[in-house]
Design goal:
Largest sheet: 3 strands, antiparallel
Oligomer: single chain
Number of helices: 6
Mean pLDDT: 79
Number of domains: 2
Shape: elongated
Number of strands: 5
Radius of gyration: 23 Å
Distance between the termini: 63 Å
């Protein structure tokens, strides 16, 4: 791995931050085309290449040293069942592949391709579906929530589930 690491270190010392300002969802980033345009000359100079193969619901990103054949691989799992407004399932799959290719490659090469937001995003609180609420209500009715919360045996119940059950009970007037 000596050759690969030496070449990768040289590449990382030279490659600039890549930020072209493509806008999406309230932030800017470098798209895959821009990333490839910037990195390819540096990859060639340092004898590096990469592949990104699909394997089931994952992308396998492999960085390799072209002379020695040494390589590093990373597997990125892509979430399934995602729907995007105005897109059919095939379009969503294509968008997902492009998105994860960009981030997997950037991660493998330690590229800077967007403005660092330092996790400034706000976590979105998910609302339970009516079916989930009914299940949680029945769960809350059948178990002593205070006892379960204090119990060390929480194998089948998470604190989040219990908290949601408490909220539902409070909403239903069963304090």
């Amino acid at each position: 791995m000596k050759n690969l690491y030496k070449s990768l270190a040289g590449f990382q010392q030279e490659v600039p931050a890549i930020h072209e300002g493509t806008k999406g969802y309230g932030y800017t980033y470098a798209d895959l085309k821009t990333i490839l345009k910037v990195i390819n000359p540096y990859m060639k100079k340092h004898g590096l290449g990469f592949t990104q193969l699909l394997e089931g619901d994952s992308i396998i990103t492999t960085i390799f040293h072209s002379e020695s054949g040494e390589s590093l691989s990373s597997k990125t799992n892509m979430p399934q069942g995602v729907t995007l407004k105005g897109m059919n399932a095939f379009q969503v799959a294509g968008a997902s592949i492009s998105y994860f290719r960009r981030y997997a490659l950037s991660s493998a090469l330690a590229l800077v391709t967007d403005v660092d937001s330092d996790a400034k995003g706000e976590q979105v609180k998910e609302n339970a579906t009516p079916e989930q609420e009914q299940y949680l209500f029945k769960l809350a009715e059948n178990y002593d929530i205070k006892a379960m919360t204090k119990s060390k045996n929480m194998i089948n119940f998470s604190k989040q589930t219990l908290q949601k059950a408490k909220e539902i009970l409070n909403q239903k007037g069963n304090k």
